Amino acid sequence: MKVAIVILNWNGKKLLEQFLPSVIEHSKEAVIYVADNASSDDSVAFIKIHFPMVKIIKNKENGGYAKGYNDALKNLEEDIFCLLNNDVEVTRNWLASIINTFKKETNTAIIQPKLLDYKNKEYFEYAGAAGGFIDKFGYPYCRGRIFNTIEKDNKQYNDVADIFWASGACMFIRNQVFKKLNGFDENFFAHMEEIDLCWRAKNLEYDVKYVGQSEVYHVGGATLSNSNPKKTYLNFRNSLFTLTKNAKGHLFILIFTRLILDGVAAVKFMFEFKFKQILSILHAHFSFYLHLGVLLKQRKSLEKRQKYYNKTSIVLNYYVYKIRDFKSL
Q1: Quick one: which H or E segment has residue 246?
Q2: Where in the chain is the domain with CATH 3.90.550.10?
Q3: For the domain with range 3-218, which CATH number is right: 3.40.50.2300, 3.60.10.10, 2.60.40.10, 3.90.550.10?
Q4: Is residue 94 a contact partner of residue 113, using CB atoms and an 8 Å limit?
Q5: pTM, 2 dp
Q6: Strand, helix or coil at 320?
Q7: Which residues are within 8 A (CB) of 9 and not within 5 positions of it... i.e. 6 or more apart?
Q8: CA 156 to CA 212: how far, in whole Å?
Q9: DSSP reduced 3-state for 180
Q10: Where are any strands of DSSP class E within 27-79?
Q11: pLDDT at 18
């Protein structure tokens, strides 16, 4: 089983200098690529000089995460793609348990390893922790992370488990499945496109797994911090995109309820004097309306829609019932 590790890069020379050595050291069984999204720094020249064993894919433009990976992966032939952020440190034998799971479980299409915080290695990392889920209204949460509450790694998730979505910070996917799904939806640009991809795989009855024996450390927010208004815009907008495209059930009621909940979030930001975040939510909603026709066409093209949630409202559980860890849900 051949593995391609593909690191998407945009002006990330310093990150590559810091994190690429661990990938090279601990990934002897894989082919390593850096897919450069038309960087304006000297990332490509730096790789050629210092890491000549790494193959370079030059994308013509910075199409974000979604288009960047679609362009980079279309001509690769390895059996398994590992989509790896350029701010991730990998560990010894991190690939072995992933590859073994793919070999044993032929219906498993996507796998995420344990994602820990590079800056505080005893804790899970926000972007994916121990595998992701969404509630009925499309709000994401993880084993090990609910909203901004992050659990300490006490080996409570050292298992292999079914999850709903795998983090794009470090996601393994079968080549044939990625291409069957036509890759990422490029309308997303960045953020939550991995949830949409996993959801579409789930709708085709593929399995998405978490493998806790594989550990990586993610910096997180190296391109956009969690408090950046652009990230707020992309997360709120793209969450509405995923619901409209993929959710089973009465769409109008679902989206209307979600828009109200987004309004509650805007009120919370107002009391916190985060006015740029409020504008980001409004911008997200207007962009959603502009894309609605396309999203509804994509929805009609789906042959199947599977149930996608275990919890009706993670917002209610977190803010009203004060549940802060995954196992208490």
Answers
A1: helix 229-246
A2: 3-218
A3: 3.90.550.10
A4: yes
A5: 0.94
A6: helix
A7: 15, 16, 34, 35, 36, 37, 39, 43, 86
A8: 10
A9: helix
A10: 30-37, 55-59
A11: 97
**Type of residue found at 262:** D
* Residue type at 266 in one-letter notation: A
- Among all chains, which residue has been given the structure tokens 């504008």? 279
The letter for the amino acid at 303 is: E
Mean pLDDT of the 104-119 span: 98
Residues 174/66/139/260 CA torsion (nearest 10 deg): -150
Report d(CA 114, CA 102) in Å as an integer: 16
Coil, helix or strand at residue 154: coil
Q: What is the pLDDT of residues 170-212, one digit of tens each?
A: 999 999 999 999 999 999 988 899 999 999 999 999 999 999 9
pLDDT value of residue 220: 84
Contact 165, 199 (CB under 8 A): yes
Tokens of 222: 């190296």
Question: Is residue 204 classed as helix, strand or coil in its secondary structure?
Answer: coil
